[in-house]
Write a structure and sequence with these properties.
By secondary structure, the protein is of the alpha/beta class. It is built from eleven helices and 17 strands. Helix content is 29%, strand content 16%.
Length: 382
């Protein structure tokens, strides 16, 4: 039986351009209602993810206008960084959670604080804490992105991935290199192995080698190509550490040299809040075979793992290599991505419920999520 519904959570229609995800799904609504949270959503918000208004109503979600959600919700969940006009329309003293990337969007915290909205950036989750695993949206979305990166590369490649023996002869399997073996990279490895490609992967973190091998891929030993010793490549929170300039140059030269033997390259290496490391330089791209395909998941306004890659753009080089900047891949499987992300958001919000409202306790280890601190709006009788 549901608890008394004393808190409201709203989500807007953010399906614009390549973004198709939604912050509340009919599936996550059940968890929210059980915790005493009444979910509400803007009409049409879930259509691109495969959820109609009728689906939401059947799950107990209220359908409201954008203005009603912003003005009356105790909390609002976001997929993207909201515009200033949206932030300042949200009720003063309310709570918000989303993928704000505040380490990159330096002014977002100030805007929330000025609007007197308590905001939690789930991209800052301390993923090493076991109780934070179900809240880790970066991991859930990277899992989807890695899967879709493999499929995108396979679709764009002009030959088969698996080896095939036919009456006309044998077709060689495609050789694929994955640079960065985090969640996205490992998912790409598994997917490409199932598609029959010969997969090799590389990561600066020593722990990644065992994970790569466990999936049946080969580990690229850059030392054999003149690469640096990266035995201390593990950083905080499970991410790779930032390399020194000398290590970066040695790594780039080694990757450029090794890349020439591969047909497809997928890059996934990111350092939260910083410019992605350049793993494949222009010289490395020019050294690839004609018809090769590169998918750069890390492509962003700050740059990417591949020199010359551009976010949401496909570039055909003069040497016949295709470079695809694809930071949006989680949104290309919006139903799965939305369900995963909505669960993450629900778990974050439920964690911070205390006495019928959202509260951040100073002693809570997860309070590092707070990017602004404002008093919660007094709860009215409902």
């Amino acid at each position: 039986m549901n608890k008394t519904l004393t808190i409201t959570l709203g989500a807007l229609n953010e399906a614009i351009g390549s973004e198709c995800r939604v912050a509340i799904t009919p599936e996550s609504a059940a968890k929210l209602l059980k915790a005493g949270v009444q979910p509400a959503i803007e009409s049409g918000a879930g259509v691109k993810a495969g959820f109609t208004d009728s689906d939401y109503e059947a799950a107990g979600v209220k359908i409201l206008s954008r203005n009603e959600i912003l003005k009356s919700s105790d909390a609002v969940a976001y997929i993207s960084v909201p515009e200033s006009s949206v932030i300042y329309t949200q009720a003063k003293g309310s709570f918000t959670v989303g993928l704000f990337s505040s380490l990159v969007n330096k002014n977002i915290a100030q805007q929330f604080e000025s609007a007197k909205v308590t905001a939690l950036d789930i991209t800052l989750l301390p993923r090493q804490l076991s109780r934070a695993q179900s809240m880790d949206a970066m991991t859930s979305q990277a899992c989807v992105a890695g899967y879709k990166a493999a499929l995108l590369a396979a679709n764009e490649y002009n030959a088969f991935l698996p080896m095939m023996s036919t009456a006309a002869g044998t077709i060689k399997p495609a050789a694929v290199l994955i640079l960065g073996a985090g969640i996205a990279g490992l998912q790409a490895i598994g997917t490409l192995k199932r598609l029959g490609a010969l997969v090799t992967a590389y990561d600066v973190r020593p722990a990644a080698k065992e994970e790569i091998l466990s999936l049946g891929a080969k580990f690229l030993d850059l030392a054999s190509f003149g690469g640096p010793d990266l035995s201390a490549g593990q950083g905080k929170g499970g991410y790779a550490r930032e390399l020194t300039n000398e290590e970066k140059l040695a790594q780039q030269a080694a990757v450029d040299k090794a890349a020439a033997q591969f047909d497809i390259i997928i890059t996934t290496a990111q350092v939260p809040g910083r410019k992605p490391p350049v793993l494949l330089t222009k010289a490395g791209v020019e050294g690839l075979k004609r018809g090769s395909v590169i998918v750069d998941i890390a492509a962003s306004a700050l740059g990417g793992n591949v020199e010359g890659s551009q976010p949401e753009m496909t570039i055909q080089t003069d040497s016949g290599v295709k470079i695809i900047g694809a930071p949006y891949l989680a949104s290309t499987a919006p139903k799965t991505a939305s369900n995963l992300l909505a669960r993450n958001i629900a778990d974050v919000l439920i964690h911070f419920i205390s006495d019928g409202k959202f509260v951040i306790q100073d002693a809570d280890e997860l309070a590092v999520l707070a990017i602004s601190a404002a008093n919660n709006r007094p709860q009215s009788d409902k």
